[in-house]
Amino acid sequence: MADSAADMEAHGSSSAAQTAKDLFSGAAGGIAQVLIGQPFDIVKVRLQTSQAYPSALAAATSIYRHEGALAFYKGTLTPLLGIGACVSIQFGAFHAARRWLEQRKSGGTGTARLGYGEYYAAGAFAGVANSVLSGPIEHVRIRLQTQPHGAARLYGGPLDCVRKLCAGAGGGAGGVARGLYRGEAVTLLREAQAYGMWFLAFEWLINSDAARNGIERKDVASWKVAFYGGLAGEALWLGSYPFDVIKSKMQTDGFGAEQRYKTMRDCFAQTWRAEGMRGFWKGIGPTLLRAMPVSAGTFAVVEMTMRAIN
């Protein structure tokens, strides 16, 4: 009995240490993700929320000409602090769910190999866990990215944006829910689908490579880890992009009399009536261009950090 208790304690300590490593590696990957992806992201958001640009190149050219090179990093502070935490949660939650599923499937030994539906489920769980943070962080980032330039700016910075969003929705706890957390329902759907696809695609690619070459996962070449991570990023966006469009529209909508979309369902309906199927895929080009280097960098940094600290 004493031995059993000691084994459980040792296992719990080991599990906690591994979770800490997952979180740390994820945070490192999140910082890489923001620094690589922010210029692509602002072009994507402008295309999703405005009719002013005929193409991604036109949007990027206009931003550079009228707002300068630094405009491509508008609103970076919020995601740099927040996305590091978000990616940390994504990887921590995914691996915690994966280990739980392995324990459950193996009867406690933790040696069972998961099916790809289970990898999807673990990824979806990570997305749902992440949505509590990613919803408000992305809302603030989108507001900062789409505000007018120069003297017409609406927000003095991330904290000022948070204050005005809450005040615009009536203040208090209700203001936080209706203002800062606007679009949270579609964010939750997007995160579950996106990260289910992301982790599923990456695990399938890297496990297939290891099996094909008769090697362990940790021996897969670094460049392959990055490449498979990039392909997983393409799967993430192709599987979830319409949800992201609706999220962006809701999170740039006005308040009170200026509010166009009453609910997520209303936003879907208005987008369909006004733009048809094409409206749900606006900005997909620069998003897919962004996805490859951003996701490759994220997985490469996470995997290499994990190998180093292990």
UniProtKB/TrEMBL annotation:
This is Mitochondrial carrier domain-containing protein. One of its GO terms (cellular component) is mitochondrial membrane. It is a multi-pass membrane protein. The keyword Flavoprotein does not apply. Keywords: Membrane, Mitochondrion, Mitochondrion inner membrane, Repeat, Transmembrane, Transmembrane helix, Transport. Signal peptide: none annotated. Belongs to the mitochondrial carrier (TC 2.A.29) family. GO terms for molecular function: L-ornithine transmembrane transporter activity. The keyword 4Fe-4S does not apply. It comes from the Eukaryota. Pfam families: Mito_carr. It is found in: Mitochondrion membrane. SUPFAM superfamilies: Mitochondrial carrier (SSF103506). Solcar repeats lie at residues 20-100, 114-208, 221-308. Gene3D superfamilies: Mitochondrial carrier domain (1.50.40.10). GO terms for biological process: mitochondrial L-ornithine transmembrane transport. The lineage of its organism: Eukaryota, Fungi, Dikarya, Ascomycota, Pezizomycotina.
